[in-house]
Amino acid sequence: MAQPQQSEEAGKAPLRVGMVGYAFMGAAHSQGWRTVGRVFDLPRRPVLAAICGRDADAVRRAADRHGWAAAETDWRALIERDDVDLVDICTPGDSHAEIAVAALAAGKHVLCEKPLANTVEEAERMALAAEEAHQRGQLAMVGFNYRRVPATALARRMVAEGRLGKLRHVRVTYLQDWLVDPEFPLTWRLRREQAGSGSLGDLGAHIIDLAQYLAGEPLAGVSALTETFVRERPLAGAVKGLSAVSEAGTGQVTVDDAALFTGRLASGALASFEATRYATGRKNSLRIELNGDRGSLAFDLERLNELSFHDGTEPGTHAGFRRILVTEPDHPYLDAWWPPGHGLGYEHTFVHQARDLVHAIASGTDPSPSFADGLQVQRVLAAVEESAEKNSVYTPIAV
After folding, report:
1. Distances (CA, A) of 250 to 65, 157, 239, 257
2. Does residue 326 sit in helix, strand or coil?
3. What is the pLDDT of residues 57-114, one digit of tens each?
4. How far is it, in rounded angstroms, from Cα 210 to Cα 119?
5. 154-159-163 Cα angle (round to 5)
6. Is the pTM of this model over 0.85?
7. Cβ distance 182 to 212 under 8 Å?
8. Alpha-carbon span 357 to 295, nearest angstrom
């Protein structure tokens, strides 16, 4: 009896993934790894080998829910596994550096969620480890998933093609409201020891990277203000590193709630940024606009299948912003998805992230954004904090 032929997919070399962390980002990354090989024709076949978390029961449930073959409770055991080629880090920022450096030393490729680290020093150590590992054929990438929205990828292409001309302005806002209620409990995201910073690192890292990516150039300097509106919150069980607990059962918030800063890009273009978790009514509102001397582009995450473009070279009689529906097969990433007009969502950015990393690993090309790119964002975050500290005393305005 003839044996069935091995499928083309099964014949590809596997890329065996081990993930550390299983909460919000762990679920999003799991979706990406689980889906990418079913949508895109990849040079290697992603395999969900093992997932890791400290709570044995919870991580086992996460493994079953998201399709991971095995579960670990110690990340050191995960990176030592022979059936793991790539370590995907989806933990709070205070553990990024230790896990990433150890994984690279163990011969693994690494994907690390943003921001790359909690401090510039940690990020420098990670970037150096990635540079040394690259000489051994290992790759390291940081997960700025908003680069992988087809509309933002198209915007980058249009800027690179010169459709905007000389860039003058970049303005970005990232607004959420999940901290508006002062009774919302103290979580790890509100503690500097674990999160590094508040809205600045959580949201600001995204918009710094997106602004620099779309502009095609780095920020050269910033001037900033930050604020913490609610400085004590009810405890939500054990909080790692908690040093101050009141008799009322509250703990101190040690990160910023909102950050406002202006900047200048290397070319001299001006930029403005706002990141807050106190914009009542805004759930996940990210908007970016770029203005050049030949045109403008605008993107709104709440309309993520659309891009607004104004061609400033057209006659004024019929010029204006026009809506580009980014669902055509020749738009970035769309050739593998649905017919034109059938939009994608947030989760697809993680599928695209996995796709790009698999291709980079298979071809041995530098992934983007690299750990060096993540370090550059970390330096901007540190400059924002330094500027905010210096600007903490206002000059009174006479009336």
Report:
1. 34, 49, 11, 17
2. coil
3. 999 999 999 999 999 999 999 999 999 999 999 999 999 999 999 999 999 999 999 9
4. 20
5. 105
6. yes
7. no
8. 32
